[in-house]
Amino acid sequence: MKRIVTLAAAAALFAGASASAQTVKVGLFSEPSAMDPHYHNLGPNNAFSSNVYESLILQDESQKLTPGLAVSWKPVNDTTWEFKLRKGVKFHDGSDFNADDVIFTFERAPNVANSPSTFGTYLKGKSFKKIDDYTVHAITEKPYPLMPVDLSQVWIISSDVGADVTTAQFNSGKAAIGTGQYKFIEWKPGDTILIERNDGYWGDKAAFERVEVKPIKSNPSRVAALLAGDVDFIDNVPTADIERLKTESDIVLASGISNRVIYLHMDRFRDDSPYITGTNGKNPLFDLRVRKAISKAINREAIVARVMEGVAIPAGQLLPPGFFGTSENLKAEPYDPEGAKKLLAEAGYPDGFGLTIHGPNDRYINDAKIAQAIGQMLTRIGIKMKVETMPKSVFFSSASRGGPNKTPKYSFILVGWGSGTGEASSPLKSLVHSKDAANGFGASNRGRYSNPEADKLIEEALATVDDAKREALLAKATEIAINDLAIIPLHYQVNTWATRKEAGLKYLPRTDERTQFRSLVKQ
Amino acid sequence: MSSDPKETAEPASIETAATAAAQPARLAATNVVETPFQRFLSEYCESKIAIVAFFVFAVILFVAVFAPLISPQNPYDLGQIDIMDGRLAPGSTTFDGATTYWLGTDDQGRDMVSAIFYGLRISLAVGALSGIIALVLGAIVGLTAAYFGGRIEAAIMRLVDLQLSFPAILVALMLLAILGKGVDKIIIALVIVQWAYYARTVRASALVEREREYIAAAKALGLSSWRILLRHLLPNVLPPLIVVGTVQVASAIALEATLSFLGIGLPITEPSLGLLIANGFDYMLTGKYWISFFPGVALLLTIVSINLIGDQLRDVLNPRLRR
To answer: What is the domain-level CATH number for residue B212?
Structure first.
């Protein structure tokens, strides 16, 4: 008996010891491609950077802007924004944060050597001026209401690292010095990323002493690691396993809607589209009735129920209702195969035509399965469908510029768009506005849709500082684009994270889809 | 197997009996017993496992050839499958009760029985076609090397060494990345990966045969090089080639399945066995075992039966083991 008591005491002691060590092990779907916060403007990189670095303005779980390294911001005239910086903030190496670091960062971030996707998106066309140690002005030529949102995307680094700092120096940890909740310790690519609590943090201290991140790309393996207790927390829980995990008493699931719409883009610039057959060189996608027929033929409820296993929301516009600049008048198109067939016949295609849908197979949740389901549904109204999916590394470059003269290669594609700004101007600017590279419009308009009326509204909205007016303009532009089926929305992606109950963890789902340890809390 | 004393004793006892009888009778008896095919057949049938393997393979071949006639559904026709029937357990029926999915359905609502039948068709066609093309190519190259010798041989065999020094899966992955998707592309990739095995085997046996008297005799008769190569050398190196062929067909099927599993072989709307297994892999932890399990069993049976047949052929055709 005495022995048992001793054992129990020892066990309790051991359990206590391991709890106080507070190391959280994380199984991550997608590993960052670098530890340099300005190397690659990519979801997994930005999600990880958010632990070690901070921006002037932070975004909370629902992408609401909250003070970060700037305590306040306001426009001082039509073309100038003023940012007041936080005092008393220290970098991980103990040096003080001030306006010099901000100016240094904004100069370096868009100019990193060999960057596959730069932060120029957020910084080009803006100039920055240090007013005093804790005041910075951002100046544009035209009024620019989205300045705070843009700057919330750029991670501030210390000017002490020097102008000639390289990505390799960040990867080794030498230059990886931020102001964030966690300090960078070590990165072994493909194996682990280690970070530790920053005890000198200016705000709420991190909840955990150490976080050990393991990249586990394979879905079943990641889930198995969680079930076995090898990791305490995983992101990107596959929809196939959600039902099963719900029955596990020691697993806690957290699902949240994202700002990402999964949609179809159609060729709207070639008369003889490469992946359309049986139309004598005509492009039926120019005809609104054909686009409407395709939209009506898609059973969004079935895709959500059967392919997404209930974890998605049928979409009727570019962002889920409730986000800034969405329309209250747009609903998901109801399933109506008979109506679709009638519309096809009216448009002159009673026997359909041949069409190939292209899409990625490793980018969005269940992307290849959705493409096949669309193939089934359009086959039922008489369109002879082929389905081709490929890895994202091949798909996106072909879809954007794989055709002759760097035009989009495909006729009909399945893609997704997450609004980084958390409001409707982002998809409108990139997907709906006519292609205009010089001014940054239509960057991902792979159908080359062009509607002068929508263009005018979008440009007007982007230069309107008054929030209510801008919101109305964005909603109007969305309605015009959707009623004309510039794109066909399918569903809004819902993301799921899972934690182990015994570790006492809970994740607060984020609309920006980021796996960020600030949002991982103790229960 | 052939060292079994009972078997070697048998022809001897016939002979003893025959010597007792008249000489012509003995000749006649030998004629009846010893046609090459019958001897081959009786030697092949000495292994029960080989017989079973042969019948399993015959069934698989039948199913593959007649898949369009015997499948309940055309799993490649998007109009015939419905996601509303997706992931049904084995033995489920459609909601009107008209069709029973005996082995269940995959995530897109494909009947697994039909999908496996069609998948076997692709696997066998790819395995056999790439095997035959690689065999012909490899045999020509190997014979040329062995017969001419010298620099030609050195050049060819270094190329073979180079090819064999890379893992087959790596070479196939690179080729498919360049060529793109499709059955024809897979066959091209498999031929390129496999010809070297045949070339090396043929060369090795041809080197031995080259020194034999009948080749010297043929040369003395002034026959052309091609005639000697094809009419004299080739028939004598065929047995090892057939053995390597069966093994390579099995490995071609396995390689195609691996490539499809990795998602770079065939289009997703026309799944082969490897792709069916890959689709089911997502559901491994959810208890929906049938999406991966049954195609896996079909693949296993195919590869094992071909390998067993190949093993027995090796024993029967190996001249060293000839009794």
So the answer is: 1.10.3720.10
Q: Which band of pLDDT confidence, cut at 50, 70 and 90, is reported for residue B12?
A: very low
CB B47 within 8 A of CB B53: no
Note the maximum CA span of chain B: 79
Cα B275 from chain centroid (whole Å) = 20
Determine the structural domain holding residue B64 and report its residue range.
Answer: 42-75+100-321
Number of neighbours of residue A443 by Cβ within 10 angstroms: 15
Of B83, B263, B268, the CB nearest to A302: B83
How much is the pTM? 0.84
Residue B19 has pLDDT above 50, yes or no: no
DSSP B197-233: HHHHHHHHHHHHHHTSHHHHHHHHTT--HHHIIIIII
Assign A95 to helix, strand or coil.
Answer: coil
Contact indicator for B142, B199 with CB cutoff of 8 Å: yes
User: Which residues does chain B have within 8 Å of residue A380's beta carbon, measured at their own beta carbons?
Assistant: 79
Rounded Cα distance between A100 and A132, Å, is 9
B285 to A387: CB separation less than 8 angstroms, yes or no: no
- Give the confidence band of A7 by pLDDT, cuts at 50, 70, 90: very low
| Interface predicted TM-score of the whole assembly (ipTM), two decimals | 0.80
Q: Concatenated DSSP letters for B295-314?
A: HHHHHHHHHHHHHHHHHHHH
Strands (E), A29-113: 57-59, 65-67, 70-77, 80-85
- Structural domains in chain B (count): 1
Answer whether B287 sits within 8 Å of A244, measured CB to CB.
Answer: yes
Asked whether residue B32 is assigned to any structural domain, the reply reads no
Put simply, whether B16 touches A (Cβ < 8 Å) is no
In a domain, B274, yes or no: yes
Distance CA A118, CA A122 (A): 9
In a domain, B178, yes or no: yes
Cβ neighbours of B155 (radius 10 Å) = 11
> Which positions ≥6 away from B12 have C-beta within 8 Å?
none
What whole-number distance in Å separates Cα of residue A267 and Cα of residue A275?
10
pLDDT at B181: 81
Tokens encoding B295: 């195609």
Best of A219, A308, A311, A372 to substitute, by most chain B Cβ atoms within 10 angstroms, is: A372
Q: What angle do CA A90, A92, A95 make, to 5 degrees?
A: 45
Give the separation between CA A376 and CA B79, rounded to whole angstroms.
6
Among candidate residues B89, B218, B84, B233, the one with its CA nearest the CA of residue B149: B233
Judging contacts by C-beta atoms under 8 Å, the chain B residues touching residue A368 are 268
Radius of gyration of chain B (CA): 25
Substitution target in A246, A376, A388, A409 with the highest count of B β-carbons within 10 Å is A376
The distance of A241 to chain B (nearest Cα, Å) reads 6
Inside any domain, residue B17: no
Taking an 8 Å cut-off on Cβ atoms, the answer to whether A372 and B78 are in contact is yes
B-chain CB neighbours of A311 within 8 Å are none
| A300 sits in which H/E element | helix A300-302
Give the span between the Cα atoms of B136 and A318, in whole angstroms.
Answer: 57
What percentage of chain A carries pLDDT values higher than 90? 84
Cα dihedral A478, A479, A484, A490 sign: positive
